[in-house]
Amino acid sequence: MNWTKPNMAAKKKLWDASAETPSEERRGGFLGRFSARSRSEKPASMPKTSSRDALLLLQNFEDSGRGWFWSTDADGRLNYLSESICAKLGRPFEELAGNHFVELFRKPEANEDRQRTLPWVLMRQSKFEDLALQAAGTEDEIWWSVSGRPFHTANGDFAGYRGSGTDITEQRMAAKDNDRLATYDSLTGLLNRHRMGKLLEATLSAFQNQRRACAIMLIDLDRFKQVNDTLGHPAGDALLKQVAERLIKVVGDREKISRLGGDEFQIILQDEDDRGALGEMADKIIKSLSHPYSIDGSRCIIGASVGIAVSPFDGQSSEELIRNADLALYAAKGGGRGRFRFYSSDLLQAAEDRRVLEEDLRDALEKGQIWLAYQPVVNARSNVVTGFEALIRWNHPERGNISPALFIPIAEEANLIGALGEWALHKACEEAASWPGKMKVAVNVSPVQFANVMLPKTVESALAASGLAPGRLELEITESVFLQDSADTDRMFTELKRLGIRLALDDFGTGYSSLGYLKTAPFDKIKIDQSFVRGATEPESRNGAIISAIVALAEALGMETTAEGIESLDQLDLIRSLHVSHVQGYVYSQPVANEVLLERCEAGDWEITPSGPAVQRSDRLSMYRKIGAIHEDHYYNVVLRNLSVSGALIEGIMDVPLGTSFVIDFGDGQLAISTVVRSMGPQQGVEFEERLVSDGNGGLCTSRRISPYMMAAAGMPMSNLPPGYYDNIEEQKRPKTLPAFSTAAEWKGN
Ligand code: C2E
Ligand code: MG
Ligand code: MG
Asked: Which pLDDT score is estimated for 717?
């Protein structure tokens, strides 16, 4: 290539001009500093530098490629540009000379203002320093940091600009990379935790002043760990990418979704407080994420749970909102996974209770608070007890007996189930060994215990220590063990069966209820869950037909069947007619302490005559919940006796005329405008103006909540408002009218 160098004469001119400039101008920039030092600030010891030496230094500096110089005339047209830059731009200086200086740089986009400042400062003839500018017309992105100062003729007229530049492309690229890393999750391309945190904080602080709502959803994948463990991490990564795509599809805006890390995602939804709409979206997300995935030819299925919290109702700061969405997520998972759940204030209390229980549970065993109760398992034909199920009990010093349904999940999560399970196995075997006859003992085994390779050893040592015949021990396992890796599950079954013990499938009909694995897993018994049996006595239920099919299959495979939770004689009749072989339930006996068991079995056999209600009482739908009813400016405390999407039955106000309007206050800002449609003394049937929506937990909630600000402003008594919102809002002091109705309590007092 043939570059025409800007000649020495031009450079000399540049240099001379610099020498002419007023000292103010000379101080900045390479040229200025160099010339000033060469003339006046030079230390006495330094050898004298001629202007020719200076020019050579200048030349060396330019040739090193570390920096470049430029100058323009009064019209802003280039009259000098270092050769290295001409080369970079791929154009000889002759071609560039006379072009306007700003043409060297890429024109700014409408939304950028950085590059717009250059024409602006040139026009104002002011100095500028370290402007980051991008080169125009180059294939690769080139960035410079450019400085310049105006210079003037001897009589003070503006004569043009002189300045310097350095290449900052590398730094820019690195910064851009960092920016991207700081903003996006490298795997899914969604926002990362850091960026989402900032976005949420900024949104909440802006919205607080504007009193706008903002919802967040936390999403956690169910069974993701299994995919990762069985198919490997690359497959896990591929799955997460597909999850991200599905989320974008449902939400419609990728800039609202973030991966917080692992298999946790967060969505921010500005100006959304309609719980009907939020519930629908959560439902869509769960359905979409639960469709099968195809990864490298393997098919896999995962699920998702969602926790939702809405500001300002459920928290005003981002920490509070996230903590509450997290509590809701935790509750959604606890409720059986594959669900969504809204935050409500009782979840916080539940979390605190749980924390305290977990602490107490740590030394409950040592303190002797744990014991086993035994419930008879009875032959449905002969009424003779064939064995007992050991049911763990915790006698808490303050709270009395706590249900295993409550503390077993806590033990599983707090890593205490191993010790509790081992204790239960040893204790059950030890006590059963002292029972008369050959009655069996069944012990429940949690999926967490089942996943531990040490389980067979534990069973073996419990048998050895007690001397119990292996054929008298039965382990009860729930269907959820089939969600684990099937090779491990099969191995565990084989090892347990090798010990000579029996296996029972517990709670059949509540979970995945696939008949498929019954054929392969070596069960000796199927236990049909009580909810399934209860459903069977309802008219038009198909449960009876399913139970018959289970019994037929079990008989064909040589398994026994037990119906659990039989309470009434009609259920017992039904179960007998369906040929279920064994029954366990209050109709025969509640779980009893070992001493009671020994007493009853003294004679050898224990035959029980079934007793109980003739028919199962239908589960009462009614409830007892304290809520509020607002009429004019009076707040009545009432009791909610039943609730549906369109109306409720309330109790506590006397003789309300039909057509009266009430605002029903369900708490937490849930207000429903309603009209009395039935009135019976202290009870009123009210119809809601707007239907309630599902709360994701089998309950109902109002679609929207009234912001606490509005409630306070509307004169809602402070005592009925959630704490923390209205330090500055004075309780409205309106003239009070007399209440229109007397309360049921007052009425009784009369
Ligand atoms: P499960 O294994 O399905 O046990 C049957 C449950 O039904 C027991 O509740 C029993 O008391 C109750 N039940 C029995 N007959 C009736 C009836 O006629 N009506 C009604 N309403 N209920 C009846 P429990 O003792 O509260 O145990 C709850 C669950 O806790 C058990 O369900 C089992 O999954 C778990 N569990 C109990 N003991 C242990 C244990 O030692 N280890 C583990 N891992 N889990 C245990
Ligand atoms: Mg059981
Ligand atoms: Mg059960």
From this structure: 61
Residue nearest to atom 25 of ligand 1 (CA): 391
Which residue has the least CA distance to atom 21 on ligand 1? 565
Domains, in order of start, for the chain: 8-169 (3.30.450.20), 184-345 (3.30.70.270), 352-600 (3.20.20.450), 621-749 (2.40.10)
When comparing pLDDT for 455 and 114, which is higher?
A: 455
SS3 396: strand
Q: How many CB atoms lie within 10 A of CB 729?
A: 14
Residue ID of nearest Cα to ligand 1 atom 8: 391
Would the CB of 585 count as within 6 Å of ligand 1?
yes
More confident residue, 649 or 603: 649
The mean pLDDT of 303-328, rounded to a whole number, is: 94
Residues with CB under 5 A from ligand 2 (ion): 444, 476, 506
Concatenated DSSP letters of 386-450: EEEEEEEEEEETTTEEE-HHHHHHHHHHTT-HHHHHHHHHHHHHHHHHTSSTT-EEEEE--HHHH
**Closest ligand 1 atom, residue 373 Cα:** 25
Average pLDDT value for the chain: 85
Distance 488 CA to ligand 3 centre (A): 24
- Express as a percent the part of the chain with pLDDT over 70: 86
- Taking the centre of ligand 3 as the mean of its atom positions, its distance from the CA of residue 578, in whole angstroms, is 19
Does residue 544 line the site of ligand 1, with CB under 6 A?
Answer: no
Helices (H), 537-613: 543-556, 569-577, 594-600
